[in-house]
Amino acid sequence: MPIAADIWHITHLELTIRVLLAAGLGGLIGLEREYSNHAAGFRTHILVCIGSAAIMLLSIYGFSEFVIEANVRIDPARLAAQVISGIGFLGAGAILRNGSTVSGLTTAASVWVVAAIGLCVGAGFFYCAFLSTVLVLMSLFVLNKWEKRLMRGRRYHEVVVRIHDRPGVLGKIATLFGQEDIQIVNVKMKMTDQTSDLDGERIKELHFSIKTTHSEKLDIVMENISNTVEVVSLESNAFKLQKTQSIGRTQVL
């Protein structure tokens, strides 16, 4: 049965519409990542989606002149398969590990999904592309808030406090946590090679693993700890506070 040659050809208008649609759908997901201040944001998702759509279009229509050749077999999925595996390298660059905390997994997954959406658009599988975009946006916006509410009492927070090596500082900081009913799960101490610029005292790092169901209480404790004289700097999953020793102020970095 002869193969219809028309299925291997696409007009310039249809090609333009597919590429622009890929840019729009990828940009919608990228806007959420940009709004959440993640590394792979608006432009990254647009580029990934356009690139995936272009590769899919190339795979289907880019070799149409060889269809009539007797010994040539056309496989529209061959380039698409390389996109699915190759996009993992880009997603891996968005994953960061800081101690026991891993961030960027959701962004890496969104980049991978955007690549799949681009392939759908390039292949003309529009319903799947639109449905996937809606479900991804629901996952990033709606389910993200639901997940935080559900897991807020189960997740641990990592807090790193750099202090002057003086007696009683650990107990003072632990008391500040206890005053707000924040449970300390684990504490690790590490002596650094740094010294204070003012009096030459050694700097020690205290690594706290804490558990709380009230994030507002954690904010209060972070502020109280940062105001402690012996504290040099303070880091948590959400922010970093650096104390300027010369003038005694605290800066949010």
Automatic annotation (TrEMBL):
Q: Which domain of life is it from?
A: Bacteria
Transmembrane segments in this chain: where? 45-67, 79-97, 109-142
PANTHER family reported for this sequence: MAGNESIUM TRANSPORTER YHID-RELATED, PROTEIN MGTC
Organism this protein belongs to: Paenibacillus cremeus
UniProt cross-references to Pfam families, sorted A to Z: ACT_4, MgtC
Q: What is this protein called?
A: MgtC/SapB family protein
Is Membrane among the key words of this record?
yes
The answer to whether the entry has keyword Cell membrane is yes
Question: In what way does this protein cross or attach to the membrane?
Answer: Multi-pass membrane protein
Subcellular location, record wording = Cell membrane
User: Where is this protein primarily located?
Assistant: membrane
Cite the ACT domain residue spans from the record.
158-239
- What keywords appear on the UniProt entry? Cell membrane, Membrane, Transmembrane, Transmembrane helix
Family under the similarity heading: Belongs to the MgtC/SapB family.
Q: Name one GO cellular component term.
A: plasma membrane
